[in-house]
């Protein structure tokens, strides 16, 4: 009995810590949104409608649903039941993976653009991205299938009470880390060439330097299995938008 109480206390403490991080991340997302809103209006809202504009808007606002809403609902409510928790968790998982893949698509298009839209590279990256997306959806589904939830251990318990799961989700991070490592290499190669040729320094700084720094940052985030809701991504999207349209 004492051991069960101790385990419950540790569980509640860990859940509170997760909630604190998610609330902080949601606040950072909202704060960053307003920091880059002016760039978004100038570069995106005033531009003509096209595939890139739709892709940008979906990727831009999807985190407000999965990261800033669903993740807080299933951690803060005291009246939520296991069946609702399961539905929210499944929806959040699908939206999160979709958001990650859309982000990878934009970053892939950025790399493809600096390689002068090579047909061969475009086909190769498309195949690799589809394989990465398939792996992420499959293993996320297996992870969600193994998720077990129970009724709240006491009336004041906040959020969903998870009693069992598996560790298959790490495959998602591994697949994304491998794919982003490839994108990093593909961004460095033309960047070195552009630096040696000493062309437009402003273009070099925006497209290559900032792009490489972002990919390195992204790789580090993947390696530490951190959340993909990165506050720096909108800035990279703003840079990529004129390059890809």
Automatic annotation (TrEMBL):
<keyword id="KW-0472">Membrane</keyword>
<feature type="transmembrane region" description="Helical">
    <location>
        <begin position="212"/>
        <end position="237"/>
    </location>
</feature>
<keyword id="KW-1133">Transmembrane helix</keyword>
<keyword id="KW-0812">Transmembrane</keyword>
<feature type="domain" description="DUF6533">
    <location>
        <begin position="20"/>
        <end position="65"/>
    </location>
</feature>
<feature type="transmembrane region" description="Helical">
    <location>
        <begin position="93"/>
        <end position="115"/>
    </location>
</feature>
<dbReference type="Pfam" id="PF20151">
    <property type="entry name" value="DUF6533"/>
</dbReference>
<feature type="transmembrane region" description="Helical">
    <location>
        <begin position="121"/>
        <end position="143"/>
    </location>
</feature>
<protein>
    <submittedName>
        <fullName>Predicted protein</fullName>
    </submittedName>
</protein>
<feature type="transmembrane region" description="Helical">
    <location>
        <begin position="173"/>
        <end position="192"/>
    </location>
</feature>
<feature type="transmembrane region" description="Helical">
    <location>
        <begin position="12"/>
        <end position="34"/>
    </location>
</feature>
<dbReference type="InterPro" id="IPR045340">
    <property type="entry name" value="DUF6533"/>
</dbReference>
């Amino acid at each position: 009995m004492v051991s069960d109480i101790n385990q419950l206390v540790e569980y509640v403490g860990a859940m509170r810590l997760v909630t604190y991080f998610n609330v902080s991340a949601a606040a950072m997302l909202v704060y960053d949104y307003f920091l880059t809103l002016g760039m978004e209006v100038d570069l995106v809202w005033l531009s003509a409608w096209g595939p890139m504009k739709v892709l940008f808007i979906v990727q831009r606002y999807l985190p407000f649903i999965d990261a800033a809403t669903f993740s807080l609902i299933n951690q803060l409510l005291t009246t939520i039941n296991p069946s609702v928790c399961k539905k929210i968790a499944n929806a959040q998982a699908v939206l999160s993976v979709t958001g990650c893949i859309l982000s990878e698509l934009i970053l892939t298009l950025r790399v493809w653009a600096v390689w002068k839209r090579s047909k061969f590279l475009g086909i190769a990256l498309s195949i690799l991205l589809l394989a990465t997306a398939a792996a992420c959806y499959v293993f996320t589904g297996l992870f969600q299938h193994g998720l077990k939830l129970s009724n709240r251990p006491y009336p004041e318990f906040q959020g969903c009470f998870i009693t069992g799961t598996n560790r298959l989700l790490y495959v998602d991070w591994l697949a994304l880390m491998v794919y982003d490592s490839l994108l990093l290499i593909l961004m460095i190669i033309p960047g070195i060439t552009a630096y040696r040729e000493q062309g437009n320094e402003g273009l070099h700084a925006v497209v290559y330097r900032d792009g490489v720094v972002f990919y390195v940052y992204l790789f580090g985030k993947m390696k530490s299995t951190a959340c993909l809701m990165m506050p720096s991504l909108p800035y990279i999207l703003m840079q990529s938008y004129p390059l890809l349209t």
